[in-house]
Amino acid sequence: MSAPRPAILIARAVFPEIVEQLREHFEVEHNPDDVIYSKAELTQRLQGKAGAFTTGGDRVDGEVLAANPQLRIVANMAVGYNNFDIAAFNAAGVWATNTPDVLTESTADFGFALMMAAARRMAESEHFLRRGEWKKWAYDMFAGGDVHGSTLGILGMGRIGQAIAKRGHHGFGMKVVYHNRSRLPAETEAAVGATWVDKATLLAQADHLVLVLPYTPENHHCIAAAEIAQMKPTATLTNIARGGIVDDAALAEALRAGRIAAAGLDVFEGEPALNPALLTVPNVVLTPHIASATVATRRAMAQLAADNLIAVLGRGAAPLTPINAGPFTPRA
Ligand code: 8YV
């Protein structure tokens, strides 16, 4: 008699063909109605499961892992993994995986588009047009700031930051400055056309500041009132990283007061709720966490998460894109 197939939970609705593919390998419990599970419900549904397919909203910490000693891998369909307590994964010997690389270019495209939309006041002017307020041309109507030839500032310089730098440097003739804990090798800096500066210089020099750093306790509100005060009054701020990196209340107030020109936000503190003050200021472009959302990229992300589950639970191999750090002994 063959051994029973491992059981997995797909915690959110995903592409039906990915569910079918996973059914070829595993006993699958999935969530076609896309119900948002509480931590208690997620913990309970994981009972008896060897693997889980999660997305960025599913919090997996030491309690969830301790209550599920049979769990061997949690595959996140996201490159960011601030929803995982990685120290707890390491201590428990549970593989944690993410989906790097496959979303880099699409996410960089979106970050650049959001920055341009903020700089050129696209959302604000579209709302004006839809309200029927466009009666005549005017010399200063929705005049914004130039992107080409200006200074692009990037906070966080991983794969996505580098892809945005390339777009700015090679495509738009921008001067690109960045700040990151670790400086890139000189040849990488040259390839993406970016120069390392300290954070204060980044804030002071950027005409357009784009945030692409991971969310950790250390960088909670690393852009708040004091940092915004160091920016140019003509600057824009774009956040495609994570809510919580920016103090949204301070940003809304700065936008209202004209302390910076505009912002583009794809991520929010406490999303999908957002600070109501952001809805009342016109000079901010708001999108619902869709920077990686092209059909091809979302498919590739789902496929990579599925491939990680298949590697570990189907073939007994290491996952393709693990995020466990330090000494790690996987659970048997
Ligand atoms: C996801 C993201 O859409 O990959 C990430 O880190 O933020 C997005 O691409 C989101 O996290 C859902 O999993």
Automatic annotation (TrEMBL):
Domain of life: Bacteria
Domain D-isomer specific 2-hydroxyacid dehydrogenase catalytic: 8-316
Positions of transmembrane segments: none
Residue ranges occupied by any D-isomer specific 2-hydroxyacid dehydrogenase NAD-binding domain in the UniProt entry: 112-291
Assigned keywords, A-Z: NAD, Oxidoreductase
GO terms, molecular function: glyoxylate reductase (NADPH) activity; hydroxypyruvate reductase [NAD(P)H] activity; NAD binding
InterPro entries (alphabetical): D-isomer_2-hydroxyacid_DH (IPR050223), D-isomer_2_OHA_DH_cat_dom (IPR006139), D-isomer_DH_CS1 (IPR029752), D-isomer_DH_NAD-bd (IPR006140), NAD(P)-bd_dom_sf (IPR036291)
GO cellular component, one term: cytosol
Similarity field: Belongs to the D-isomer specific 2-hydroxyacid dehydrogenase family.
Entry protein name: D-glycerate dehydrogenase
Organism: Rubrivivax rivuli
